[in-house]
Amino acid sequence: MANNTLAVPQAKAAMDQLKYEVAQELGIQLQAYNGNLASRDAGSIGGNITKRLVQIAEQQLSGSAGSFRR
């Protein structure tokens, strides 16, 4: 079973916005109920969200002090 609990609950609105942006870029229509969404499409959205979050984190880390850089 998946754990969909956010580490920072205040980030829910931003995560939802990111989900809709990624879906739109992929040409996938999201609605209030997405139970009929194909697993392939849902996985594609999730994978792209993960890539985007990693890119954001890398950008933030590269701009911070060198303690995390190698």
Automatic annotation (TrEMBL):
Lineage top rank: taxon: Bacteria
List, alphabetically, the Gene3D superfamilies matched: Small, acid-soluble spore protein, alpha/beta type-like (6.10.10.80)
Alphabetical list of PROSITE patterns matching this protein: SASP_1
Keywords, A to Z, come to: DNA-binding
Q: Does the keyword Iron-sulfur apply?
A: no
Pfam families found in the cross-reference section: SASP (PF00269)
Q: Does the keyword DNA-binding apply?
A: yes
Q: Which InterPro entries match?
A: SASP_alpha/beta-type, SASP_alpha/beta-type_CS, SASP_DNA-binding, SASP_sf_alpha/beta
According to the UniProt entry, where is the signal peptide?
A: none
- Entry's family note: Belongs to the alpha/beta-type SASP family.
**In UniProt terms, what function does this protein have?**
SASP are bound to spore DNA. They are double-stranded DNA-binding proteins that cause DNA to change to an a-like conformation. They protect the DNA backbone from chemical and enzymatic cleavage and are thus involved in dormant spore's high resistance to UV light.
**Protein name listed in UniProt:** Small, acid-soluble spore protein alpha
